[in-house]
Amino acid sequence: MRIEKDSMGEIQLPDDALYGAQTARAINNFKVSGRTAHKEFIEATIIIKKAAAMVHRRLGLLSENKSEAIISAADEILAGQYTDQFVVDVFQAGAGTSHNMNCNEVLANLANEKLGGKRGEYNFVHPNDDVNMSQSTNDVIPSAMRLASLSLLKELYPIIEKMISLLKSKAREFDKVIKSGRTHLQDAVPIRLGQEFSGYAVCIEDHLNKIKSSAVSLKQLGIGGSAVGTGLNVHPKYGGMMVETLSKLTGENFSMAKNYFEVMQSMAPFVDLSGALRSFAVDLGRIANDIRLLSSGPKTGLSEISLPAVQPGSSIMPGKVNPVMAEMLNMVCFRVIGNDLTISSAAGAGQLELNVMMPIIADTIVESLKILAGGLNSFNNRCLGDISADAERCRYYAENSFAMVTALNTIIGYNKAAEVVKEAMTTGNNIKEIIIGKGYLNTEEVETYLAPKNLTEPGIPGKNIS
Hints:
The protein is mostly helical. The protein has 17 helices and eight strands. The protein is elongated.
């Protein structure tokens, strides 16, 4: 063990720890969930520290040696080293001060060692004075939240685009598969399976555009606002130079916030993004439900589509296969929907110059983005692309649905059509035979007007409308 001293006095911590006194206090204080910051959020914070060291060197506020040592330490962390040194629970001090200091202390100790110093002594590089120069938790954390979210969105977008492509492909593949439509889970007029899947594709495409629109405001950074947005202890050129440097390091086109006070007070960009993800999850879950329902069976359910068998479905029933990938996707969607409530509640809990609930917003928005990407990617690769249709079963349902008689409303009238349905339900006789037997239509007319393919296209049966 070693002893470090901070503004509150001395504290013991492991001799080999790269973190310091403030992190050690956080470990003792926040024994809550055992969950620490997501890798993406840690990396986003470290990128900001790296950019700050670069900017301060250019401004002449940090020596070449100190700057290079901090940058080198940051690069090692970004390369995947020392992940075990970021140890603060996600439920921690408001605003994320403990996370910020954890990053400051790890970087400072690594930088000190590079300059010949010892861990915990900070003779060369100090976590507050050097690594955290010109910064406050209050402008670092909201900026890191933006960087992490945008990085994860870059991964999510192509996965959603692949889902859209697969759905469109299935829409084309299933375009000739005629089936019974269903409303209220009861028989409805015919529809083509491809038409159902085309609806799914357009729905997901619309959600992708909404998610992209919601992310636009994330590119405005309040870095340089310092503690309350005034920029106290910050070089006048620092904010603009940080935006420029972070844009180069991340590939994003960042800009300075229009108002530093607003960007520190409000978590609206994360509410917008989370709301778009929630809306996406609602429809995504609905589609997963449809796929589970359409594949129900194989003998006693709808069984209109078949899903690839990826694992045994039961520990007791031999041969049973379940729609596990769609089930997984449902659970992901439920979590994202729940996360949105956490984010909106936390966003509304800010007071005056700061929202101190940022740690839970950061953890939750990152989780939503990560599980959506992972869940969708698995669903695309292990299920969606290999869905097949049972065309004969689909057509059987369509041709035996009483709802087909709807097509005759404009020919024999609603009341007569209803009588035909009632008789068919009572006697079990075929609808077409009943219509012919009653003399409403002849055989040729029945076959023309009730041809399933014709019932899946716009038009009024029996009317020549151009």
